[in-house]
Amino acid sequence: MSYKFGYIAVVGKPNAGKSTLVNFLTKNKVAIVSPKAQTTRNNILGILTTKDFQLVFIDTPGLHKSKNALDKFMNKNIRSAEGGADVILYLIDSTKIIDEFEYDYLTSLKQKSDGEIIIVLNKVDLVKKPKLLLTLQELSTLGFENIVPISAKTGENADSLMDMILKYLPESQTKNFLYDEDYYTDKSLKFMVSEIVREKALYYLNDEIPHGISVNITKFELKPTLLVVEADIICEKDSHKSIIIGKNGAMIKKIGQNAREDMEALVGTKVLLKLFVKVKKDWRENINFLTEFGYKNED
Length: 299
What we know:
Elements: E1 3-12, H1 18-26, E2 44-49, E3 53-59, H2 69-83, E4 87-93, H3 100-112, E5 116-122, H4 129-140, E6 147-149, H5 158-167, E7 171-172, H6 189-204, E8 214-222, E9 226-235, H7 238-245, H8 250-267, E10 270-279, H9 287-292
Parallel strand pairs: 1-3, 1-4, 4-5, 5-6, 9-10
Antiparallel strand pairs: 1-7, 2-3, 8-9
C-alpha cells in the first residue's frame, strides 16, 4: 500500500476565498472568514488526514503591496509558504478582472516556483459562463495547464481539485505523516479564541477600522466546565475605540456575544468572556507591539 503526504500553499489576492477553501477541504473551521480584505495575517495550517494521505494546507494572507511592518510580516509569510510547498494553489476570484499586479505575480511565480502550480478559479457559482471562458483563455496565454474552476462556498468541483492535488504529491510505501490523525490545525486553542474575537470584530465594524485592529489575549484559563478569557481589542485611534465600544457599549457587547457562542461550540464548555478596547497608536509599525500580538516571523 502507498501513502501520500505534502504541503499545499494556498495563495491569492485578498478575498479570493482562500480561508473558505481551506475550511471546506479540511472539513473544519481552521481559519476565520470575513468579507473584509486581509482577514488572514498568520500562516495557518489546515490538516486533512485519511488512511491513505495527509494533506497540510497552508492558508496565507492576501497578496498586497507592503505599506507597514505588519504588511511586510504577512508578505514574508506568503513567500515562506510558497517556498516550502509541494503544490501551490493560486486562487483567483472569477467575479473580478485579473489586473496587472496579478498577471505580474503569476508570471513571477511560474518562473521561480519549484512546486506544481494549480490555478483555482473560485466563486464560479457567481459568474456567467462567457466571462468564465474569457478568464480561462487569459490564463492559458500565461502557460498554465492546471486550471480548476470551483466554488469553495458550495463545494462545486472540489473533488476534481483534490484529485489534481493528490496527483502531484510525492508517494511513499511508508506512512510518513507528520501530524496525529485527530489534528486539524497547528494553532493553539488560545490562538483560535483570539481569531474568533477578531472575526466578529471584522464582521461588525466598518471598513476603515479592521485593518487597524488586533486582539491580544490577556487571560486564558481552561477549566473542566468553563473557559475564562479576557482579551484586548487593539486599535490605533481614540475615534476607533469609540466605534468599537459603540453607543452604551452596544457594539462591543454584540462582538462579545457572538464570539462567545463560537468559542463554546469550539471547546464544548461554557465561556466567560470579557473584552476591553485599548489604543496603541501606529501599532502596525511597532516591532514590539507586533511581537506582543503574535506577528513575528521566524528567521
